Amino acid sequence: MAALEDSSQGRTRDRRSVYERYQDVAGEQGAVGSDDAYARETASDGQPTDVEREDTDEGADRITSPFDPEHIDIETRTTTVDLLLSRLRNEMIDLAPDFQRRAGIWTDEKQSRLIESLLLRIPIPSFYAAEQKDGSWAIVDGIQRLTSIARFFDAETVKAEPLKLSGLEYLRNFTGANLADLSGKLQIRLRETEVVVHVIRRGTPEPVMFNIFARINTGGEPLTRQEIRHALIPGRARTFLAELAGSEEFRSATGHSVVGDRMADREMVLRFLAFRLTPPDGYRTGDFDGFLADAMHRVNRLQPEELDQLGRDFTRAMGAAEEIFGAHAFRKYRRHQQRKSPINKALFETIAVNLADLRPDQQSKLRQLDALSAFSDLMEDTEFERSISVATGDPKKVRMRFGAVHALFGDILEYGDGLQ
After folding, report:
1. Quick one: pLDDT band at residue 144, thresholds 50, 70, 90?
2. Residue 243 · residue 311 · CB < 8 Å
């Protein structure tokens, strides 16, 4: 094949783009499924989603800015289950009520076995929390465990159904029991059970705090980067992202295919907002996680009318993307392609922000032209294709992809869809 060329060691190397290699594999396999050549993100149940896994070329534990180690203040506290519940009841523990992973990840059986471990005096893993300005704790690692405990002791604190024990391995005689069914002695044993909480004190720089949680985030169900941002940055941004991610315009434009239980939908919304608030040319650090965290802080500081305008920009862009690109909106596409590629986050932010930059009449004109075919030509550009596939957080690649789509829309509007 022309795309394969001999190296000096006599080996062959495939020099085609990622997209070209995908097309060959997909053609051999037929319709794109969970086993196609694109790596996909996974949902909480471990199944592949319709969102392409992204390579931002950022190490999970990389610190991109200098910091003073003396500013890191982590306090290890040994407390009791009862004191944890007291903090929860008095709103001194933030479980992020709209944190979608809070419920539905652990089954009743798994939650019951945690209570069984406490009854058997088996130590449970430590909790990790970030101290907020008011002294409350934002739980970042241990949300499922604390929710399980709260459901058994005081379900109202987490607005959930009371937990009745099931699926026990050793104390099967307690099957179907709730807290009231236990003897007073056992209730006291549970309440006085000691647990360890590692609290990152306020004053620790936020980028370092993110870094610490990324390093410890290695459990069986590790948090995504957006879930960490969500836990550490309270405020209006949380609910605003949820509102836009839950909008019919977003859901329809993405084919109702973005699974929200790992907050991929909210991250996509945040990326739109981040580049709407800071033009691509203003993104220069290469710290994409920090860029998105800063955007959440900026959203928290916006006035209601500014949020309303951002919301209108977003919904207009979603409607325009669906009408212009149809089922292939925010997906890699080649001319006459029938099957759908997974949604690409870098394409999502790039196309959505560029559409939001257009006037309504310009959006309307794009709807009347064959922008999808013109976009397929852009996908033939290996440099553009790599800018949405590899090291997508690199500032040069960010500027490249935004500039390329901006130029594409400009050319279509000026010359029509008969681009050469």
Report:
1. confident
2. yes
